[in-house]
Predict the 3D structure of the following.
Amino acid sequence: MLSSNGTQATIEFSLNLVKARSPRVSPSIFMTDHDQAQVNAIRSAFPKCGHIFYCWWHVLWAIQTHFNTKEFANLWSLIQDWVCTTDSNEFNSSWTQIQGDTEVPQSMAEYIAWEWLPHKEMWSAVSRQNRSIFEEGDTNMLLEAYVITMLSLILKFFINIFIS
């Protein structure tokens, strides 16, 4: 998301500006970084948005900040595979393995259970199946590209004013 701060009001305001400027733009999928303010703003500005997904890079980054990936290399490898698995049985089996492994810090399993499992439809590859290439490309990245383009045009405008 592109905004000057991360409050829901600011993000929602920005999304509504884009929506007002381009009323035909209505993404069916948004990708975000596990920020509840962003999720709430997206749901408010684009209530017909079919899916809000968490970016895998951000998911993995957040999880790896809760344990030493070098000390628990097997756990880290399992989690990386777990996030990207498309098979629900394999997903459940990996979670059972994480929970049951006595070498996995209990705090880590509790963190995943508390922070990630309630929202697994937003980050698990199990939820990201059977989409056409058009659905794959129909995300907020188009909106971000639009905003960046508009910001660069505004910047060029002001540079020309001050240089002239």
Summary: Residues 141-163 form the longest helix (23 residues). Strands lie at 29-32, 51-54. The chain has a mean pLDDT of 85. DSSP finds nine helices and two strands in the chain.
